[in-house]
Fold this sequence. Notes:
Elements: E1 6-12, H1 18-33, E2 45-49, H2 52-63, E3 73-74, H3 76-86, E4 90-96, H4 116-122, E5 124-131, H5 145-152, E6 156-162, H6 172-181, E7 196-199, H7 203-216, E8 220-224, E9 238-241, E10 244-247, E11 269-270, H8 272-275, E12 280-287, E13 291-294, E14 299-302, H9 323-339, E15 342-350, H10 353-361
Amino acid sequence: MEKQKGVFVIEGQAGTGKSVLVTSIFNEIQRAHNDKSSVFSGTNNYVLVNHPEMLKFYKRIAGESSVLLKKNFDRPTSFINKMLKNTEQADIVIIDEAHLLLTKKDVYNHFFQENQLQEIIKHAKVVIVIFDDNQVLKAKSYWSKQKLIAILGEKSIEIKHLQKQFRVEADADVQDWIAEFCSKKIQQVPKKQKFDFRIMNDAKEMYELVKEHEKAVGLSRLLATYDFPYRLDGNDYFVKAGNLNLRWDRSNPKESLAWAERSDTINEVGSVYTIQGFDLNYAGIILGPSLGYDEKSNKLIVRPEFYEDQAAFNGIKQLGSNIEATKERLMLNALRVLLTRARKGLYIYAVDINLQKKLLEC
Length: 362
């Protein structure tokens, strides 16, 4: 903090404890902030996250803590604009879910520069970046490890890789199956084990199973790929899968609890945007029409034309790479996020009849 700008990059896939680490680090920093004998005494520190549900979670933790303040948790755009307006400089900034930072101008969200990470570094002495390029979901926040290193440039950088899986309480074969499936390879379902992993042929039956777990242990939800219509217009929209017809998660910015933490959301289907960053005990995943099966190649088919989150592709031409491959990567990243939420059990139902048949055969 006294000599030069420093950046600490912490990389780790879903479930490796990144958000727990953020909470722990910031708690210690802010505890020292109140200690007059500490080098951190009086420092101006923040946690930033470009995810409204995660921000609710952090602010709730701050409200229950004796050392944390809600004002120290913010969205990146709000932080950048405040620093510019007040010509302030932060000491330590931790960026959770840094793969969600904008990589292009977004006037609609009041970001007028070109890259949020670049701007944050300008306004902080030390930046801790929590990053997983397998969780990039939108073209306007399109990151790769190469792009990250290029943005950081010649600054003092340290990189740490988190590798231990804390969330998914399954043997390696289940974790390997999920990883292969998100690479479009369909393997035999792993042997029966403590982690309850099932392919379902009845969506309503899957929902009933999830509700049983919700009553028994809590934190059990239905999730779906973004393949069913949804608009932010105050109306209810529904996920229709086989014999199941259940509404999408309702947008409620005024709700203090995050979607995954509210008991009433057992009556809804969550999307990648409401569940990213959170743990569940049991998850039932609906794979919508954008995912199919090709018998010739024996692989998963990804169909961007059926993806209802077309806004995720805004600005994709400006990336200058293979457009279809980039769309596919964003969709498979979203799939990976959904399939890596559950700690104790994962259930999968495919709407596409060919994919459902193949998965059941496996």
